[in-house]
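Journal club prep — side note

Before the paper discussion, L.F. wants everyone to see what a predicted structure for a comparable chain looks like in token form. Sequence:
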Amino acid sequence: MLGMCENRGVTTALKMTGYDSSELKQKLRDLRECADAVWQVNSHAVPYGWGGTAFGMFLEIAEVKSGKPSTLAKFLDLPNHLLEYASLVEHSARYLGGKSNFYLSLAKALLVRFVHDHTNKNHDKTVANLLSVMLGTNYGEVDHRIWRSNYHRRHAHYRPDPPDSPVLRAKKTLLECEAAVFYRMDVGHPGEQYLRKNRLTISRYS
């Protein structure tokens, strides 16, 4: 667990996405504008009785004829997919990379949980001494108590984007789990039951 503290994860937007911070902001704007453009093509009001474009009507007819989502009808939901994609990229850059210390905090949290699970106490001073081997001798009990309090508060009230739909929130949670596993921190895996709950949420609303 101490060895995990060496992995500070993705430290820049460039490493996370291939674009630096300013470029990424523009690309995300482009994606959202693209979603709006697709929506306009699919459903912008024109002189048709049903209130949408002819192209959008063709997609709708394909769905009605088949009685289930067809290859063409799937493009009706493309704007939502683009918006969700932009949100997931933005979430990754903000909460899994940069200065978020996502992987370091995860490693520290695993150690804290391990100690508490086996002793029923936090043992802040001892844990801080252990962590100081990796984080430097300046990391002491007070620093650790402050970090643990902040981390617990962030974890308990983790609502980065309140307007998120249930399915988008579930997708962001799955993304975080995949990021943790990717960096060989699967020992901190939240459990198959937890993941199954989020997958069910996604399937229910998709």
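L.F.'s comment for the group: Residues 4 and 107 are 6 Å apart (CA to CA). Keep this in mind when we get to the figures.
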